[in-house]
User: Fold this.
Amino acid sequence: MRLCDLTGQRFGKLLVTGREGATPSGYALWRCRCDCGNEIVVESRRLRRGSIKDCGCGGKCQMRRDLTGRVFGQVTALEPTTHRTEDGDVIWKCRCGCGKEFETSSRKLLRGSVKDCGCKLNLTPKWIGRRFGDLTVVAFEGKKDHRNMWRCRCDCGNEVVVREICLKNGHTTSCGCKVDPSRYCHFVDGTFVEAIQARTMLKNNTSGVRGVYLNQRTQRWVARIGFRGKTYYLGSFENLEDAKRARKSGEEMTFDAFLQRYREEGSG
Assistant:
């Protein structure tokens, strides 16, 4: 008698994925995937009779959607894994538009809380075509030192890869053909030269001095300074003026000395 291939057929919550041999008495065995993600091997007669419709999870698990091939933002769901969240949600293997593969839960995909692997590629449509001075953004170039990089085409025809922060703050507005040295991004020994020259404050600063803030827990003024990729603690003070002096002293020892050497080397 010819064997009927059940691959791809559904019986309740079970989807037949392939043949698994036969029982000693000759009944065909089939590997099935339950909607909860578990896999079991079942006799064909039990499937046909309807005596088994799930892996044994019964009503304890919710129906799981097959997300294979579905696209969520920049993420494509590849296949379910055997891993589960604490509440039983299926973990899916996914591929981001940037090429990286990662895992996340089906709930996060369906709710839209995951649209990329973390590379922020979902921001690409908002950036492509934007102009910054003579530069037009044409493509996302990935990350460098944890910062977004964008390929831009200059009005002169040249293309250049620019840090996102340099586009946002206006320090880079051309490929270099019309560069204003006072506005261009220069990084020396991990230090953003223009940033320490400008010494601008964040919008949420409440002390009036960059690098000085009020510790809400201790109600003391804390002074810090960032230099060459590291943050240095300058002290905690009851009086704001003392914190300001500590910050100023820190700038003199780091920023001022650094800028002086930078200018000397540039002129030499």
Q: What stands out?
A: The chain has four domains: 10-60, 71-111, 123-183, 186-268. The mean pLDDT is 79. The helical segments are 44-49, 106-111, 124-127, 164-168, 193-198, 240-267.
